[in-house]
Write a structure and sequence with these properties.
By secondary structure, the chain is of the alpha/beta class. Helix content is about 30%, strand content about 15%. It is globular. The protein starts with a helix and ends in a 10-residue tail after the last strand. The structure holds 2-acetamido-2-deoxy-beta-D-glucopyranose (NAG) (8 copies).
């Protein structure tokens, strides 16, 4: 009971700020609570938060690899050492999307740099899967670890511009030029490589997975991990397809179509090919899907967007599953079933992994408290350990966990 309570608390802390439905995801790093603050860990470790400096991408401007406002794209790199010296983990930052010139322009003055490197914090906290501490991040702590900053608003996948609005949509170039730059900094000699990302970055890790594999020789072990990137093509409670409508704006405004996997665009419309459910079975590189069946962002913005809940009947349910009515729980179960169906075929090949749990959370790999928390359904391993088992082929990880890890159904 107590064990599950603290996850509820962490979630509330981390995702407290929710700005106008779609546009801004709170920069998570600002609010990452340490385990000592949450007081609930069964395995408290001493975490001194690692802060890693921002690096502007070399030749970003020459390659047109720029943020929405035309400033150079950027990443944070912390070098590996020892047994991790030739291993590389690339984490793609998240932060929702922008779907029209108004919402994209808005991002160029965002505090967190989601549309401009001029607004990016000069240091970023590396926690969870990016942590340098073996207690917290036993498998990847000494790898070369990179956070690629998200400043295009289309999951690193657009290539277009709106001159009259002074907007550049260069996600695909940002992705490619960062990979070039990192190759020149030693990634070309990688023995191990893992592409991951959370939220919009988790979607991007799926979109770019096979491309990433293609950057390396076959002797390099390459896998991908999507954290909270499994956005469903869901019908909201008022019968609309709110997220699909939104994606359609993102895809057309930013010229995403050309960069979507051909195996999908050859037989489906581009907006459909921005949904992981239409991509994952055809991705050939080993992929891990980590997602909550009650993903709090999707509940708030896709299943029950504010437009579909004008009277705020879902307000307390969004916050705590325990306060959902029976009919609300039924709707949430329907969403969960849709997710489980969508990963069924994907989960069959040995190489793929998944952990679909039932916490009211969004991203889990960068939150120390979730990443380093033991889950009974994983055989009392942490998410970090289970990912290591899958990455290094020690065992398969295909787990659906029904344990409700907030106060809700305890
Ligand atoms: C954590 O626990 C200690 C000892 O039980 C207590 O003194 C402290 O106030 C708690 N901290 C928080 C943030 O709850
Ligand atoms: C964490 O470790 C540092 C350095 O070893 C030490 O100074 C600090 O007191 C420790 N903090 C806690 C909460 O144990
Ligand atoms: C991790 O980074 C922190 C913050 O820079 C530092 O204090 C600590 O010594 C580092 N830990 C290891 C194991 O390198
Ligand atoms: C612009 O951003 C602000 C603050 O982040 C938000 O409140 C506002 O709704 C956004 N406007 C649009 C059109 O996205
Ligand atoms: C962008 O999304 C907002 C909802 O957040 C919607 O009101 C607007 O019409 C959308 N724009 C386009 C071009 O689809
Ligand atoms: C994608 O996967 C499905 C299901 O395995 C298969 O029927 C289809 O032929 C694949 N499409 C391509 C283009 O590989
Ligand atoms: C979802 O909405 C609830 C209630 O407003 C809020 O507490 C929570 O932070 C939101 N979560 C996300 C990921 O937006
Ligand atoms: C996991 O931990 C619980 C509680 O400590 C224990 O009852 C259970 O047997 C453990 N399961 C495994 C697979 O070790």
């Amino acid at each position: 009971m107590v064990k599950f309570l603290w996850i509820g608390i962490v979630t509330a802390l981390v995702f407290r700020t929710w700005v106008d439905g779609f546009v801004e995801e709170k920069n998570l790093d600002e609010t990452v609570p340490s385990l000592s603050e949450t007081n609930g860990s069964s395995q408290a470790f001493n975490d001194t938060l690692l802060m890693v400096e921002l690096t502007l991408v070399k030749e970003a401007a020459a390659k047109g690899a720029v943020c929405l406002d035309g400033t150079a794209s950027a990443y944070h790199l912390h070098r590996g050492y020892g047994s991790g010296a030739n291993s590389w983990l690339i984490h793609l930052q998240g932060g929702a999307w922008c779907n029209d010139t108004k919402s994209c322009s808005n991002r160029t003055t965002s505090l967190f740099g989601l549309g401009s490197s001029a607004y990016m914090e000069p240091y970023m906290a590396f926690s969870g899967i990016l942590s340098n501490q073996s207690e917290e991040n036993p498998e990847f702590f000494n790898w070369n670890r990179v956070e690629l900053r998200y400043c295009d608003g289309a999951s690193f996948s657009g290539d277009s511009e709106r001159q009259e609005a002074k907007l550049q949509f260069r996600g695909q170039r940002i992705w490619l030029s960062a990979m070039d730059d990192l190759m020149s900094k030693g990634m070309r000699d990688a023995k191990n490589a893992l592409l991951c990302g959370c939220s919009a970055g988790g979607l991007s890790a799926i979109l770019h997975c096979d491309e990433f594999r293609g950057l390396f020789p076959t002797t390099t072990k390459v896998k991908c991990l999507s954290d909270a990137g499994f956005f469903l093509d869901a019908v909201d409670i008022s019968g609309e397809r709110t997220l699909r409508d939104y994606y359609s704006g993102v895809v057309s405004l930013q010229g995403v179509q050309e960069n979507l996997p051909r195996f999908c665009t050859s037989h489906l419309d581009p907006t459909s090919c921005f949904f992981p459910e239409n991509l994952i079975v055809n991705i050939t590189t080993p992929l891990f899907i980590l997602n909550s069946a009650y993903d709090s962002w999707q509940i708030n913005n896709s299943l029950v967007p504010p437009s579909a809940d004008p009277c705020g009947e879902w307000e307390s349910c969004r916050y705590n599953l325990a306060s959902c009515s029976a009919s609300q729980m039924q709707i949430l179960q329907g969403f969960r079933n849709q997710m489980l169906n969508a990963v069924k075929q994907f989960s069959m090949p040995n190489q793929n992994g998944m952990f679909i749990n039932s916490c009211l959370v969004h991203c889990q790999t960068k939150e120390s408290a979730l990443f380093a928390h033991e889950f009974p359904a994983l055989g009392n391993k942490t998410i970090g350990e289970a990912l290591g088992d899958w990455y290094f082929d020690r065992s398969e990880v295909k787990v659906v966990d029904e344990t409700c890890c907030d106060l809700a159904l305890e």
